[in-house]
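Progress narrative, Year 2. Work on STAS domain-containing protein from Mycobacterium asiaticum advanced from sequence curation to structure prediction during this period.
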Amino acid sequence: MYARSLGIVLRVDGEIDSFNAGRIASEIRRFNRVKSPLILDLSNLEFLGIDGFQELLALNHEYRAAGLYCSVVAGLAMRPLLRIVTEHGLPLVHSVPEALQLIEDALPGRRVLQRLVR
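Result:
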């Protein structure tokens, strides 16, 4: 995990399966309290089981409900599940730089909107 000025980048390596999916999701949820954009970098993940995928869907729902930005850098481990579950709603990006650029592009609009609301 490393923090950037635009958000938090959390890289998960190894495997997410039924044994550790809940624990990993709990750790990711801790960053929800920071109220900062989150980028989950799963590009180096070797395996993602259905339990891990379900946790990702739940995390995405929670972040959206809280009004927080979250994106997922998908890798090879996600491809089989993404082929099966096409209507997943996950905000997928190709790379961390792409996700950071999306956050940066959204910032001026947020600042203008905040000024208009005041």
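The chain has a mean pLDDT of 86. The CA atoms of residues 3 and 56 lie 20 Å apart.
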